[in-house]
Amino acid sequence: MTQLFDPDGNCVPVTVLQAGPCTVLQVKVTDVAELPEEHRTASSNQGKKRGATARPRRADGYYALQLGFAEKRVKSASKSEKGHVAKAGATPKSIVREIRFGQLPEAKQGDEIGAGIFKDVARVDVTGTSKGRGFAGTIKRWNFSRQSSSHGNSKSHRRPGGIGRQYSTAKGVPKGKKMSGHYGVDRRTVQNLKVVKVDEERNLIFIKGAIPGHRQSFVMIRESVKAR
């Protein structure tokens, strides 16, 4: 995180995100006829070397773009990964995600998508994995209030208190009961974050506020579905 100053001189706290370049590894379609002629077969380079016949590619049943981000060591990639990204003229990627569309997207296999697609977007939703905090008590995990420090309270200041049930006590603790336990490492989405600045040259997006996750973590950025 850092800060920027708007034209009025106000200090705006922002989070800097690197949004790209993301390579389009595959285009998912409902009808194979919507793909270019060279992408309508599913044979690999290895199959061609062995003289295997090219089989027609099947339709996926929905529209989507499969994007790859962050380079992966070639020696750590499997043969299937290498063959898949080779069709897009790319190298193996560490992060591969799909973005669904309601209609055939304009991007083609092998294209690169950068932060420029957000230049006309005012607000975004950011999805990431929250920080891991290990085993936590109810005060830290669920924001419970502590008990009294005096008036006969002995070594129970931060304990959760009774969890007794008024029905079916033989069934144990009810599901969803707020108790001590593992805290963090959950998929979380922060909505309606304001886009303050977009640096297309460096593929950077400056958004107002904080996002889930630690530094150098990977997140998904989408145009806000509840833009105000």
Secondary-structure-derived class: mainly beta
Number of strands: 12
Oligomer: single chain
Write the CATH fold name of the largest domain. Answer: Double Stranded RNA Binding Domain
Which CATH top level class of the largest domain fits? Answer: Alpha Beta
Helical percentage: under 10%
From the alpha-carbon coordinates, what is the Rg to the nearest angstrom?
Answer: 25 Å
| Low-confidence runs | none
Task: Order the strands across the largest sheet as they lie in space.
Answer: 1-2-11-10-7-12
Which whole number gives the mean pLDDT?
A: 88
Question: How many alpha or pi helices?
Answer: 3
Strand content: 25-35%
Instruction: Just name the CATH architecture of the largest domain.
Output: 2-Layer Sandwich
How many structural domains in the coordinates?
Answer: 2
The biggest beta sheet reads: 6 strands, antiparallel
SSE order: EEEHEHEEEEHEEEE
- Span between N and C termini? 24 Å
Q: What is the overall shape?
A: extended
Protein model, in words:
- With 228 residues, the protein is mainly β.
- It folds into 2 domains: 2-130 and 186-223, 2-Layer Sandwich (Double Stranded RNA Binding Domain); 133-183, no CATH class.
- It is built from 3 helices and 12 strands; from the N terminus they run βββαβαββββαββββ.
- It has helices at 45-49, 79-86, 138-142, and strands at residues 2-5, 11-18, 22-28, 63-71, 93-101, 112-113, 123-129, 135-136, 181-182, 187-199, 204-208, 220-223.
- Strands 1-2-11-10-7-12 form a 6-stranded antiparallel beta sheet, with no helix packed on it. It has a 4-stranded antiparallel beta sheet with strand order 5-4-3-6, with no helix packed on it. The chain has a two-stranded antiparallel ribbon with strand order 8-9.
- A hairpin with a 4-residue loop joins strand 10 (187-199) and strand 11.
- The radius of gyration is 25 Å and the shape is extended.
